[in-house]
Specification:
Layout: H1 9-24, H2 26-34, H3 41-55, H4 63-77, H5 80-92, H6 97-110, H7 113-132
Helix pairs in contact: 1-2, 1-3, 4-5, 4-6, 5-7, 6-7
Protein name: 4-carboxymuconolactone decarboxylase
Domain Carboxymuconolactone decarboxylase-like: 42-124
GO molecular function: 4-carboxymuconolactone decarboxylase activity; peroxiredoxin activity
Length: 143
């Protein structure tokens, strides 16, 4: 199940931007876009086209599964800022808090207990921050 090879870079970018906004939120993407400069513009274009426009748009996995895989990969690599961003994204993609907890428990077995311990700490910070937001502001599931 691959993408249409006739898609242009512009199409991949447009589709990637739509998915990126659905998964991460308009506010997040708007901040990233506003922060672009001569040094980071090409990287932002790259991740929009390839990560979001080529991988996240593939039909082989749904967004919930992609979020589960992404959380696990970020734990394994120790990318905690990105992990926190993707905990929010996982909720937007329809994972429940209980499912996120299960992913973190699973990671304790296959990655390490210290990695899972750190993941729980970071996930709890995100969940606590979401709980502290005014009603109606928490990330809704993505459609």
């Amino acid at each position: 199940m691959s993408q249409d090879p006739r898609r242009t870079e512009q199409q991949a970018h447009a589709e990637g931007m739509a998915v990126r906004r659905d998964v991460l939120s308009d506010a997040h993407v708007d901040r990233a876009e506003a922060g672009k400069d001569a040094f980071t513009t090409e990287f932002q274009d790259f991740i929009t086209r390839y990560a979001w426009g080529e991988i996240w748009t593939r039909p082989g996995l749904d967004r919930r599964m992609r979020s589960a895989v992404t959380l696990t990969a970020l734990i394994a690599a120790g990318h905690w800022e990105e992990f926190e961003m993707h905990v929010r994204a996982a909720l937007r993609n329809g994972l429940t808090r209980d499912e996120i907890q299960e992913i973190l428990l699973q990671s304790a077995i296959y990655l390490s207990v210290p990695s899972a311990n750190n993941a729980f700490k970071h996930a709890k910070q995100v969940l606590d921050a979401l709980d502290a937001e005014p009603a109606g502001d928490p990330a809704p599931p993505a459609s």
